[in-house]
Amino acid sequence: MPSYDLEADFQRDIYSVSRLNSEVRAVLEGSFPLLWVEGEISNLASPASGHIYFSLKDPHAQVRCAMFRMKRQYLRFQPKNGLKVLIRARVGLYEGRGEFQLIAEHMEPAGEGDLRQAFERLKQDLQTEGLFDSAHKQTLPKIPKRIGIITSPTGAAIQDVVTVLKRRFPAVPLLIYPVAVQGEEAPRSILNALRLAERRRDCDLLILTRGGGSLEDLMAFNDESVARAIHNLSIPLISAVGHEVDFTIADFVADLRAPTPSVAAELATPDQQEIQEKLFTLSRRVTLATARQAQHKTASFKALEQRLLRGHPGNRLQQQQQYLDDLYVQLNRRISVIISTKKTTLELAKTKLKSTTPTTRLKQQDERCTTLHHRLQRIIKGHMNLKHHDLGLIAGKLNALSPLGTLDRGYSITYLLPGKDVLDDVRNTHPGDTLETRISNGRIISSVLTTSSEQ
Predict the structure, then answer these.
(1) Does residue 418 have a cis bond before it (omega within 30 degrees)?
(2) In whole numbers, what is the pLDDT of the chain averaged over residues?
(3) Structure confidence by residue, pLDDT tens digits, 155-192
(4) How far apart are CA 106 and CA 88, in angstroms?
(5) Which one of 35, 78, 333, 423 is at 20 to 30 Å from 162 when CA atoms are compared?
């Protein structure tokens, strides 16, 4: 009978199911990079959360997959059972059921990769050729006389464009060029519409638009002949193909790219409300300018009227009479000022003459001597006080630096006899040595019994 090792049993590393699934998930996610996987969709489920769950299968196997809402919102097509797709995914494990699964980051219909490569090649060739250069872009008219819309007459895009145009600027007439926007005939249909618009020149602005879709759905707008026709147009064109995330060759070569059909309509026309506000502002400015001009002309007329009255002979005679009266008053005032000035000068001369008599000069010199004597006494006294103060400061400093002053503050000086060397280190004395200690009021002779160092 085999023996049972109780201690070894206690040392077992026992996993819980949750721990096992968590560590397996970490191993899977860390062992595989992002993968491209192709297969057919089955068991598709779309709960209210916005996530989608499905199986991806081939003739021999299947694997569970999940695509969360944040990634699903960028899909340009609607996934459905039986559709063959290509996904870019991370390998993972759903811990709740211990189920191996793929987390899809991107999904596209199978075969779209070839379309994408063709799209990129054509885009690169046309860009190198210069079809996308901003130098070829035309300026849109501020207020178009007529707008041509090249799109499907039954699609949602035409409804969005017309609704916005009627709301923003209903006065502009619209001309619809119906075309196919998807399928084999779509490029030729769009090309014919562009040529017709160029030949007839009924519009001074064109909008090329359709709703969103997959890359395959939008291939008519990635056609080289359509791109060159747009480039050769003499009429400005706005391209609004698909959703914000969709880009086509037509977008790059057009004079302006709009992310959605509605935005294209907003870019094509001004807002009538803004125009009405500008017209109202201009009307007010014209009214105010007219009023100011009328006021200015009225003031000019009154000024001319006053000028005519001032030029009347009677007024001129009155002005001259008043001028003579003013001159007479000024002459009398000037004579009075001259007489007053002469009197003041005479009085000043008398005062100056009095101040120069010998008696006055002697009195002034005596007063000056007295003042100088008092000033000298004040200077000598101040100088003596300053010297007394400086002497006190020097005496205080001398006393502070004197060894006797230090003794008065409670300190002492110890000498080692018989040489009376100052003792400043305990290691310089030994038991039996004679010491002389100087304090403030005498000396003390002592003998060393023992020594100790504090270091």
Answers:
(1) yes
(2) 84
(3) 888 999 999 999 888 889 999 999 998 888 999 999 99
(4) 5
(5) 78
CA separation (Å) from 373 to 129, 318, 370, 385? 109, 74, 5, 19
Given pLDDT bands bounded at 50, 70 and 90, which one contains residue 7?
low
Global pTM reads 0.45
pLDDT in tens, 14-25: 888 888 888 888
Judging by beta carbons within 10 Å of its beta carbon (0-12, 13-18, 19+), is residue 140 exposed, middle or buried? middle
DSSP state of 137: P
Domains in the chain: ranges and CATH: 17-114 (2.40.50.140), 143-270 (3.40.50.10550), 407-447 (no CATH)
Q: Which residue has the tokens 């037509």?
A: 250
Q: Is the pLDDT of residue 262 over 60?
A: yes
The residue whose two tokens read 């939008």 is 218
Q: How far is CA 166 from the centre of its chain?
A: 38
For residue 91, the cross-strand partners are: 102
Residue 69 makes CB contacts below 8 A (sequence gap 6+) with 49, 50, 51
CA-to-CA distance for 356 and 371, rounded, in angstroms?
Answer: 21
Cα–Cα–Cα angle for 252, 257, 172, rounded to 5 degrees: 135
The alpha carbon of 198 is separated from its chain's Cα centroid by a whole number of angstroms, namely 45
Count the residues in the chain.
Answer: 455
Q: Is 339 exposed, middle or buried (0-12, 13-18, 19+ CB in 10 A)?
A: exposed
Cα 268 to chain centroid distance, Å, stands at 31
Helix (H, G, I), strand (E, B), or coil: what is residue 207? Answer: strand
Cα Rg, the chain, nearest whole Å = 56
Give the separation between CA 244 and CA 250, rounded to whole angstroms: 14
